[in-house]
Amino acid sequence: MASYSKYQTKKGTKWKFQLFTGRDDNGKQIIKTRRGFDTKKEASTAAAALEKQLQSESLLNEQYLTFNQVYLAWLENYKLTVKESTYQTIMYYFSKRVLPIFGDSLISEITVKQCQDVINDWFNSSYQSYQAVINYMSRVFKYAIRLKYITDNPLDAVTIPSKRQQNKIVKRIAPEDNYYTKEELEKFMVSAKQYQNKQAYPLFRLLAFTGARIGEICALSWSDIDFSTNTLSISKTRANGVHGVMIQRPKTEQSNRTIAIDQKTANILKQWQLDQRKIMLILGYNTLKPEQLVFTNMHNSLLQLTSVAKQNKAIAKAAKIKRITPHGFRHTYATLAIYGGMTPKELQTQLGHRKIETTLNIYTAVTDQQKIGIPEKFTAYVDF
User: Fold this and answer.
1) CB-based contacts of 33: which residues, under 8 Å, 6+ apart?
2) Residue 94 contacts by C-beta under 8 Å, 6 or more apart in sequence?
3) Which of 71, 126, 130, 335 could form a disulfide with 122 if both were Cys (CB 3.0 to 4.6 A apart)?
4) Can you tell me the distance from the alpha carbon of 265 to that of 362, in angstroms, rounded to the nearest whole number?
5) pLDDT-derived band of residue 186, with 50, 70 and 90 as boundaries?
6) What are 127-180's pLDDT values in tens digits?
7) What are the Cα distances from residue 331, in Å, to 127, 165, 186, 355?
8) Which of 254, 176, 267 is nearest to 216 (CA)?
């Protein structure tokens, strides 16, 4: 906004204006001054023209912003709204997939075709997280639109390939196959008990017999386990942070929960606690502290999930059964619990699902299989 004032010259009274246009890199105000107007109206007209000119120049400069510049500005604001682990994931997505392609491009010149070609490449190369990356890229473009750097989001016009089609091309563990039957789980546990790393058996036992998430299991401390009541308190999870692996609050408020463990699992954990103390003492670590992690690497630090996956694969191979993901043990628990008669509400509490619909999706999938035996069960009961 301009300010106006009169001043005296040899030729009489004149008007001038001062227009605040922003601040420099040191925070000092930038003020444009123009003098020599006969009337305030002339000064006002000139001030309005100068302000319009500066705005046009500013818009012109903004048209030369690169995608990377806009991304960094967006990220600075967006990181205040998400967990550190999510922030870390976003930076990874952009550094590996987006910035090498679009980083130096002017954001105003990125076309629909360029975006479509890149998305198709991600799809055809079996990159699994392409839909998440598209979502975050779109947020950057929308941010640029709000600030009037651009007028359109090129991603609004692309065709996003179906995840289902990609799954047909690439051989992966399908969600409906990512669990063990009772017989398969028993074979896995026998194999895990014989595995060279003594930690593997109690870890996978706890995964399969509680339905807890792998991140929740990795973040457990011995103080979270109450052997007098055989209960497990889940209030944190393992995550990837900016500075490496970290512990943070769980996925949702419902994830904070106390769950019961059976006596055999409790006994296995008690034995592992003794074994851990011996193993870590040899390595020079004291595991008697209250916040000692239940499962660690050889440096008594948080486990890497790649290590868990490697053990999982080796144990399944030794057992001569199919391999499921670590998350598949959660699905295994849910499936077998339903077969065992657990209600959806009980299962929701045990798994820490925020919505009952999530639990019901599992329940429906299992009960659909059970429908095959309904006629025989009815006839056996009526018996005539």
Assistant:
1) 16, 17, 18, 19
2) 71, 75, 136
3) 130
4) 24
5) very high
6) 888 899 999 999 999 999 988 888 899 999 999 888 766 555 444 555 567 888
7) 24, 23, 15, 16
8) 254
Q: Which residues pair with 226 in a beta bridge?
A: 231
Q: What average pLDDT score do residues 249-264 get?
A: 80
Kindly list the distances between the CA atom of residue 231 and the CA atoms of 71, 257, 263, in Å, as whole numbers in the listed order. 46, 10, 10
What separation, in Å, do the N-terminal and C-terminal C-alpha atoms of the chain show? 93
In percent, how much of the chain has pLDDT > 90?
31
The answer for 69, left when phi > 0, alpha when psi is -120 to 50, beta otherwise, is alpha
**Token pair 């491009």: residue:** 105
Give the type of residue at 270. Answer: K
Q: Token pair for residue 331?
A: 């699905």
Contact 185, 176 (CB under 8 A): no
Measured CA to CA, the distance from residue 309 to residue 206 in angstroms comes to 15
Question: Could you tell me the two tokens for 232?
Answer: 């497990």
Instruction: Please report which helix (H) or strand (E) contains residue 143, including its range.
Output: helix 130-146
Residue with tokens 């329940």: 363
Please check whether residue 158 is in contact with residue 116, taking contact to mean a CB–CB distance below 8 angstroms: yes
Q: Which residues of 110-134 are buried (b: 16+ CB within 10 A; e: fewer)?
A: beeeebbebbeebbeeeeeebbebb
More confident residue, 9 or 249: 9
| Structure token digits, residue 234 | 């889940």
